[in-house]
Amino acid sequence: MICFLIWDNVAHDTNPIRWSRPLRPLFIINFSDGKQIRRAFRNIRRTVPEILNILVLFFLSIALFALLALKLFNKRNLTYPDGTPYFKEFFDSIWDLYVLVTTANNPDVMMPAYDESNWFAFFFIIYIIICLYIFMSIILAAIYYNYRNNLKNEIRASVYGKRKKLGEAFELLKVERGGEMVITYQTWCCLLKKVIPKKSQAHIDLLMKILDTKMNHQIVRKEFLQLADLLQLELTEVTDRMTFLERYIPTIFNSTISEGLKKGVRHKAFRYFFDFLIFVNAWFIGFDVDKADWYFLAMFTVEILLKLYTFGPKEFFVRFWNSFDFLVVFSAVIASAIEAAEGASREEFKTLDLLLVLRVLRLVKIFGSIQRFKVVLQTIINIGPSIFTYGGVIFVFYYIFAIIGMEIFSGKFDYYGYETKEGDESHFCGNPKLNGTAFFKYQYCNNNFNDFLKSLVILFELTVVNQWHVIASGFVAVTSKAARIYFFMFHLTCVVIVLNIFIAFILEAFILEYTIDKSGKLESCVETKIKQLGLGIGQGTRKTNPQEVQKDDTELVPNEQLPESSLDDDAESDTDSIPDLSIETGLKFHLKKKSRKKVEVLLQQMFEGEIKPEDEGHTFDENEINVPRKLTLDTV
Amino acid sequence: MICFLIWDNVAHDTNPIRWSRPLRPLFIINFSDGKQIRRAFRNIRRTVPEILNILVLFFLSIALFALLALKLFNKRNLTYPDGTPYFKEFFDSIWDLYVLVTTANNPDVMMPAYDESNWFAFFFIIYIIICLYIFMSIILAAIYYNYRNNLKNEIRASVYGKRKKLGEAFELLKVERGGEMVITYQTWCCLLKKVIPKKSQAHIDLLMKILDTKMNHQIVRKEFLQLADLLQLELTEVTDRMTFLERYIPTIFNSTISEGLKKGVRHKAFRYFFDFLIFVNAWFIGFDVDKADWYFLAMFTVEILLKLYTFGPKEFFVRFWNSFDFLVVFSAVIASAIEAAEGASREEFKTLDLLLVLRVLRLVKIFGSIQRFKVVLQTIINIGPSIFTYGGVIFVFYYIFAIIGMEIFSGKFDYYGYETKEGDESHFCGNPKLNGTAFFKYQYCNNNFNDFLKSLVILFELTVVNQWHVIASGFVAVTSKAARIYFFMFHLTCVVIVLNIFIAFILEAFILEYTIDKSGKLESCVETKIKQLGLGIGQGTRKTNPQEVQKDDTELVPNEQLPESSLDDDAESDTDSIPDLSIETGLKFHLKKKSRKKVEVLLQQMFEGEIKPEDEGHTFDENEINVPRKLTLDTV
């Protein structure tokens, strides 16, 4: 992408219009990494036809209201405050009313009529209720409904596809044992060594143990079909938890003073004290008392050092908030140090401000440590990766519109400040046509298509919708009214359709997380089985002494309480110790929480619960997935 | 309500502040008619605590970003175009960022920083993504989720309540017959004559027949529990369909010419011709060709007269679009006639314009006659009554805020036009403090709290959100910054909470309608039974000759194709004639489509499908409705 941009800027002068450029982001969609983006696009493509009827009706309604407005107002010779005519021409009326449906010119578009007679307010109120509140909600509902169905079908197809291939593999590998078709332990080992060559024999044995519910060292078809889910789980061996200090200066590290110190750091009061300190710091920042900054920074640095000493770097950095803290505080320390060294020449070090500002982000940590906010923050963190997918989708649209925008509007005007004198080239942002426009009055000249970054910023502003008609009016002034088509098309694609699909996704994802939170964890079959084996609920080793950890090193330790970005920073380790079923493997494993990792997993969680484990689909045809045939494999 | 308003205006001068007034709309909630509104309020009350955590986190995030903004910008001495300071004070920063989250000051709030350095755009983009797109979507999702659950529980409680009372009634009325506890035909007649005294014996017999599936003239408990659903169905006797003309001038009405005419009117081409004419008319209106108006009016009048002649008034007006047509065309005819009679004095008859404008609404009829739009329009019409419920809810909030607003802001300024001279009392809308404010520059003086209607209009404008900060700034200028609290509270209650609940309702209702549309009609048990009895799919008598109707006058005619507001204006009557099971009653009945009538029915449809017909609830306690116990009454 970057090379495209550079090349664009170089090649810009020689090629006035290059039609292939807007289509270039389609490459992203076909890149192998863009599987999620491809899926999102397929979903958009399938959703659009379904809502087309509603959109057509929506535009017909706008046209109808435009006719009404024309009839009501055009003989009254009203004008806007700036003197432009009021509902005088049909297409202008449609434009004004379309802008009203985005709310961007409310209440300005109503005021001239409202000043004429109070009763005209009803026309606009009825219009807004029908075209904004009802139609827009219905469009959102239709998108939500169709998006959800399409997603469901996609997931179903992919689950069926997975099962089909595993079924085929089973047919090739099976042998008969005691009247049943099974895969033997030997075949299993051969297979797994090819699939995951880097893993140890103990790991392969453990996986077998998880699948093999009857404990007879054979895997039947039904069990084998869960192999893909099993391989998706990231089981990692737990490494030694001894810290650097513990290993090299054990006498000091384990002395009474040191133990007391560590106990102090582990105590609740330690946390509460520093949480309180963050609040005080926030207060100081808010009321701009800069002098205490050094004191706070020193305190927070001490906090981090103490924690590092107590928990060791490995355990310290595994938690999201600690790493976050470390990054924020130390960048602030460095920035402050440079600032202090430079003394008075502060003006030149404005970039350092950014680093100093990061200190404020420590406050976020407090939010994370309050129980009631955990669910919400966890949801946001879980949805995070998926938001990047939609970021990709939106970027593709932005790219296309940015390139087209640059072709049409590039160089029409520029930002030169607003204290230019008459007669200067740079007066009126270098284009006299802007004289008197709202665009110039609002000082929007920096919103232009002169380079790619500025184009992205202006498109983002258009996505937020407010004042988009003012921005559009500037480009209409320097080109022609036809420029409205560009802005209208952008609004329709990116705001009405893509943004609503994004909202539909968040609705779905959030409701899923919420349901899980209220009803207990949603698990895949494999995870359930792991729990049945007694390996699921593990004892957090975080706060136990290293000695204890060494004692039970044969334990399988799922780090459900130690996820990389856990909010559970100081949760009590109140879970029971588990029955040990994997003693013979002689290894400890972490079961990484997978929902953090991939968008796909979240999507699958959404709908996989609705597909029965035995269900392998009607045929294995993606087009006919709606009528799944049930195969009860137990009786086969 | 009206008398409150009048009294308010009378009493206004004597009582400067009357605290009871804002609370007055609470009466509406407790009126007996306000059952739906009460339910909506109960729902809001239960939903709010659930989203409180998210709201708190949302505001904390805004405060955090405000701190960041303060740190980033306050040493740069930037100003807005009008010279006001830029992120200089903490609470101003919070206000600016809260307004940004409503999008109302985008991109104005960003421009000074963006002009300073392009990279500052990222601060605002990240803020908008987090606080607008993510948080607002999550708030919508949380509201949707909680609203849906609360609604489900409400409906479940009311269904259980109904069943409980019917069960108690059954216990009182039952007698033993052949080992079963039943209600006999005699008891049934006694009971029904008390419940629906105005209905005929035939009607009561028919109801019995619908419930009595075993045809043994006895009703068991399970059947009896459906009595309430049955009584909700509006069965009306079909009256004679002979038209006035047919009865009094049969020779002319049934002559060859007349028959030919009627055949012509019934032909598709007749409809297509007039639909085409509406399009042409719309075109003429759009491009302001007024001269052909009389021609079009005459044509449409002829159309209506011909249809009246052919179908008779009863059959004509039963259909929504015909009544609509009649109203629109004849009000236009009357308006035009008055206008023509008055000749040149058109200026004084501006109110007539409104009637003339109504002609344009005929276009809506075309939308309704296009098959692909029918689903959408039907949905809107079905949701219609429920929207009025929410209209009631919003009115309550509006009333409270309007009264408070009038107490605080009434008479601070007024609209006198903008051509006033300096020194006049009415200059700057009568309040010099408005001088130089954006509020005055935008000419918003007519947006004030000087009377109740204007207050409602301004509150509606605030609901639409755009420019709400400008409106607020006007009132801040004439009072103090504390006025911001009023506008903030209004936005939080009416836009963030109530409006999102409204959108949640439309989402739910639309998805329901959509699902029904895709999967066939959702019916109550009773409706299913009626269809099983063969009384469900009836032959439309609309286009058959009266003679034929007289022949089969013993038929039960459900007017599924003749609902009051049917969009099915010219559908072919292609359904089969039904087996006649109600011959002995000697009556024809219309089964009125009930989904048009009450919000409650739509709500019940939403969730009743999820409750099994036999399920009478765990206990009959509304507080414990979550764990329903299943009673299979067949085995009792």
From TrEMBL, chains A, B:
Pfam families: Ion_trans. Residues 538-579 are annotated as: Disordered. This is Two pore calcium channel protein 3. Keywords: Membrane, Transmembrane, Transmembrane helix. It comes from the Eukaryota. It is found in: Membrane. Residues 566-577 have a biased composition (Acidic residues). The chain crosses the membrane at residues 51-73, 119-147, 269-286, 316-337, 387-409, 456-478, 485-512. One of its GO terms (cellular component) is membrane. SUPFAM superfamilies: Voltage-gated potassium channels. It is a multi-pass membrane protein. InterPro entries: Ion_trans_dom, Volt_channel_dom_sf. Residues 13-148, 267-510 form the Ion transport domain. GO terms for molecular function: monoatomic ion channel activity.
